[in-house]
Amino acid sequence: MERLVGKYCKIVTKEPGDDRAGVVTGVLEDVDYKDGFILVNSSQGLGCLRIDTIIAIKPSSKRQDNQPKHVKKILKDDDEAMVGIGTLIVFIALVLIAAVASSVIIQTSESLQQRAYAVGKQTIRQVSSGMEIVGLTGYTNAAKTKIITLAVSVKPRAGSYDIDMNETLMYIEYDNLTVLSLDWSGVDVVTGTISADGVFQTLNHSNLSSTEFGMIAIRDTDNSVTNSYGMSTIDMVLLMVNLTAVFPATSGLATGEEFIGRLVPEVGSSGIFLCSAPSAFDYRVIEL
């Protein structure tokens, strides 16, 4: 009878002592062998029949008009369900939302990756690049009373990127702050050779103003300094400063005086130097 559970059946019963058998039609809801009865949902409602009174039971495909429509149906594993249009619309909407969200996440991650790469590259260049001050040399007037020209030996730091001298500034801190930039207007500003009279006669330094510094290429194997004013890692230059113009009140740096200077490239760390004049000048060329 377990196979008939949930099906519309015709059940023939006969009570003990009855001469005639009775017929009950309805849906077989449950079978209880322990207590010996079955549950039947018929047109008269839910009732039970004793198993020992059942003579015959068989499924029936005919349903009486007065049979209740809310008959319980037990689904089997092979039963198929239909998906409504509403469920399909919700599913498609979820797929579209997931696609849009994934696209936004991918674009955001790519943007963050590119920005992180750019920041990292700039940081590495800022930390590794810079100028190294090799030495300071002064040139006095004929009376050896004051320094009128200053030569600053400069080269890039180890591992530094190329340095554009056009974008490099020199700060001189004395009674006030003076900012100097490269004078590239004349052909004498940069030269690949030094005259026989020496470094301080190679350029006409008296033409340099109080806001300009000249440049002499001491080592320029790739001609980057002379061609484009760019100093590569193997180059070395002399930056010439007209102290007569920078210090007009004293027409130069007097004995025992000093000032602080900084070379600030476009990218990288600055080069700082202290220029201190001795108490007496024995020669016109003085190591400072």
What is the CATH first-level class name of the largest domain? Answer: Mainly Beta
CATH fold topology of the largest domain: Immunoglobulin-like
Helix content: 10-25%
What portion of the residues fall into strands of 2 or more residues? 35-45%
Q: What is the gyration radius calculated from CA atoms?
A: 52 Å
Structural class: alpha+beta
CATH architecture group name of the largest domain: Sandwich
How many alpha or pi helices?
4
**What is the ordering of alpha helices and beta strands?**
EEEEEHEEEEEHEHEEHEEEE
What does the main sheet amount to? 10 strands, mixed
Kindly state the number of beta strands.
Answer: 17
| Total separate domains | 2
Averaged pLDDT, please? 80
Low-confidence stretches: 186-193
Shape: rod-shaped
In words, what does this structure look like?
The structure is a single chain. With 288 residues, the protein is an alpha+beta fold. The chain folds into two domains: 2-59, SH3 type barrels; 128-287, Immunoglobulin-like (Sandwich), CATH 2.60.40. Helix content is 20%, strand content 36%. It contains four helices and 17 strands. The strands form three sheets. Strands 6, 7, 9, 10, 11, 13, 14, 15, 16 and 17 form a ten-stranded mixed sheet that branches. A hairpin with a 5-residue loop joins strand 6 (131-140) and strand 7 (146-156). The longest helix is centred in the middle third of the chain and has 44 residues, at 85-128.
